[in-house]
Amino acid sequence: MKIKSLSYITIESTDISEWEAYAKNVVGLMKNEDMSDENNLFLRMDESPFRFQVFKGSENKYSKGGFEVASKEDFEDAKKQLQDLNISFQEEGEDLAKVRCVKELISFNDPGGNSLELFYGRDIDKNEFKSSQDISGFVTHGLGLGHLVFGTLEAEAAHDFYTQVMEFGDSDIMRMRFTPDPNDPESVIYFMHCDNPRHHTVGIMLAPTPPSGLIHAMVEVETAEQVVDAMDRATSNNIHISSTLGRHMNDKMFSFYMQTPAGFMLEFGYDGIQPDWDVHETTNSEAPSYWGHEFNMPEA
Fold first, then answer.
1. Does the domain at residues 5-120 carry the CATH identifier 3.40.30.10?
2. Distance between CA atoms of residues 104 and 120, nearest Å
3. 150: Cβ contacts below 8 Å, ≥ 6 apart
4. What are the tens digits of pLDDT across the range 53-70?
5. Which of 136, 198, 247, 254 has the smallest number of Cβ neighbours within 10 A?
6. Where in the numbering of this chain does the VOC domain appear (predicted)?
7. What region does 113 belong to: left with phi over 0, alpha with psi -120 to 50, or beta?
8. Where in the chain is the domain with CATH 3.10.180.10?
């Protein structure tokens, strides 16, 4: 199975207008006016019809991640591989394919219970992308939306699934304690890449799955100034800053974290490395960051 990129995510929301304001006033995304309606908000980052779909529901949480393969042949190969491994999947119909702006897609779950969609043939939007803020562009070309980090107590099984079934590669494995207490059990985070240069597209953390369904998603911009500007916009719009600015150790990303209306965090970053996978060796980071990234989670 050859995964090209993370193409989109879907999010359930009790108040779509809250997401629309957040996307416009803070993140700098563009609403797809042609696709959106009172029950669905489609948000653009680039030439794709959407990267985020927010749909009306009874909860506020992450819903699904859409992963792309390059061709019909790769799509059929992926289905055969799942069948050979006795991994059940759902063949989705033309109606959902039209909503997702793809040729064909299937859906299935990873061992942590996260719902995934796999597809080929993404549409290109004829209308130029224009950020709702002064953002020159999001770093997506050939790399996809960004990355996702999940929490699960089935971390080993999930890691095996992504590396052995989805055929991701290990970029970095981080083992750490989150408090100075030596009796605090050690956790592990697996950072994995697919078939593009982004350092990691999926992270799996040994931790309970949060109510939001996701620990964080990441989007990347082209300059450090745009990161700082986004942090200022978040503050002025009363968005909780979950982490101060910092520089990550494994992917070298300069970023901060903020809360989303769905309850998971959004990492807003710049300058992530793009390794050459032919020569890259899996690293074992000793800490999350060189500096900064002091977390201050909101009260439940």
1. no
2. 6
3. 110, 112, 114, 158, 202, 203, 204, 205, 209, 214, 215
4. 999 999 999 999 999 999
5. 136
6. 5-121, 144-271
7. left
8. 5-120, 147-290
Taking the whole predicted model, whether its pTM rises above 0.85 is answered as yes
Report the pLDDT value the prediction gives residue 300, as an integer from 0 to 100. Answer: 63
C-alpha R_g of the chain? 18
Q: Which of 98, 148, 139, 91 is nearest to 121 (CA)?
A: 98
Spatial distance between the Cα atoms of 140 and 255, rounded to a whole number of angstroms: 16
The hierarchical CATH code for the domain 147-290 is 3.10.180.10
Q: What are phi and psi of 119, to 5 degrees?
A: -150, 175
Report d(CA 52, CA 42) in Å as an integer.
6
Q: Which amino acid is at 2?
A: K
Express each pLDDT in 2-20 by its tens digit.
999 999 999 999 999 999 9
Structure-block tokens of residue 224? 């450090």
Sheet of strand 202-206: strand arrangement: 169-176, 187-193, 202-206, 147-152, 216-221, 265-270, 254-259, 241-248, 289-292
CA dist 187 → 208, 223, 283 (Å): 11, 32, 16
Which of 234, 200, 237 lies closest to 218, judged by CA? 200
pLDDT at residue 299 is higher than 80: no
